[in-house]
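Reviewer 2 asked us to include a model.

Predict the structure of this chain.
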Amino acid sequence: MNPFRNRKPILEVSSFYGRHSELRAIYQQLLLQPPQCCAVIGLPRSGKTSLLYALHHTQQHEPPAALRITPLALPPVFVYVNAGPYVDLGEFHLQGALYFWRDIAYALAQSLPGEYAAPSLAGPVAGDSEALDQIYALRQYIASTIRDCPDVTVVFLIDNAEGLARLPRSTSSLLRTLIQDSAIGDRMAYVATSHVPLYQLYDPATLQEPSSFWSLFAETIYLGLLEPDEAHALIMQRAAATPQHLFNARDAAMLLQLAGRHSDLLTLACALLHDWRTREPDAHPFEWTIFEDQLYEAAVPLCQAIWQSLRDTVPGVYTVLGHIAEQQPFETEQQRATLPLLERLGMIEQRDDRYYIFSQIMHRFVRQQLADMLPLSEPEPVPIVPSAAPLAPEPLPFVIPADNLPEHTPLPPAFTHLESAVYSFLSSNAGVVCDRESIKRAVWKDTPPSDSALQKLIERIREKIEPDPKHPRRLIAVRGQGYILRTDISS
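Predicted model (structure tokens):
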């Protein structure tokens, strides 16, 4: 059985690995008086839910010795609630707010030591007024239940806080009132996870004042890359659980190079390598190039989720990552200012005073995305006369309709910058087949686009020089080779 195949959140603490520094940081905030709220921010699939379950487990057991932390003065009761299902609800959805309060009330009743009756409120409600009445009743139930347990510290673990931000603002305001309650506030705290800093969960344009709830979270803990020893332990300890230890030191080094120390991407790489080693244990030399291609294909959905999450988290991130991927100097201080956040999130890491994208697979994905985006970021079209066409006449003192122009006076295509560069290269080699790689080297130097991006550019050039772009006669694709611009065919 492949021990790496399960990539779901880790619910059993015996299978949890690493994240000691992050758990220690959370406990240090809870040790303060009163306990402080913490926000845990991480990229998709970075282990946020697993971290909360590891915390939840410590209420029945002493904190792991590896954390080297002092237990809380009052035993903690961790109450887990997942706000993710509410992401698709609107800010006026009181029914959704009611479901959230039911969830958190039931979770509290189940988590407290001893027998506590869950609230009896259930079933649908007739309208917003009845929903509000039940919400306030649930809030009172939570407050009174905590008040009746003076010997514990109650810590609410709110997973996927993005969902909470989609509910009516009264939801977060009521959560704040619990901590403001003088009878229970010094024995309460919230730990919330999100893929973006909490202050970004609300659109500033729609708020007259900042959220009073999110301002409680004085400490932000970023769930970045695993520590080197934690990543190595993930590779070797799980592999050791199999009847035959399949991975050697060379395998571990290559896995870290390809997948980096992102917990889920590394687990995915280990799962794929485990399958390979099981099928062909004696294969030598190992085809790492083929393995990388297969891993890349499998990792695209994860990389895409990270890519989209960064767009929402870090302004101008695509430009910054482009400079890092190509090892180019940054153009502005604003670009430099994003580096600490990207490093805390685990998207980049610093080695030898330089920044690098965290893994070879993610680096490849970033370059592919940026290459495909190149045509989207071009400047406004500028009329450029192709070298293979006659020069345009001098501007006339009055406008002549295009359909009245003499047949020997062609209109110059309005090429964009990239279209002009590609067309000029083909024109200078007119009548000769130009392979794709030579075109890329001539136009993009060290940052070539994908073949599909080049093909789209060629199609746009055809639209401007061919009478029938779907049946080109001048700019022809030569199967398996490249493109040729023919001069023996008039436009």
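The radius of gyration is 30 Å. Strands lie at 38-42, 76-82, 153-159, 188-194, 219-223, 348-351, 354-357, 434-435, 475-478, 482-485. We have added this to the supplementary material.
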